[in-house]
Amino acid sequence: MSPIRDDSLPLPVGRALEKLGRDISFARRRRQMPQAMLAERIGVSVMTVRRMEAGSPNIALQTVARALHVFGELERLKQLLDSSEDSIGLALMDEKLPQRVRLPKAHKDSGAL
Question: Could you say which of 50, 55, 70, 109 would form a disulfide bridge with 17 (CB–CB 3.0 to 4.6 Å)?
Answer without folding.
Answer: 55
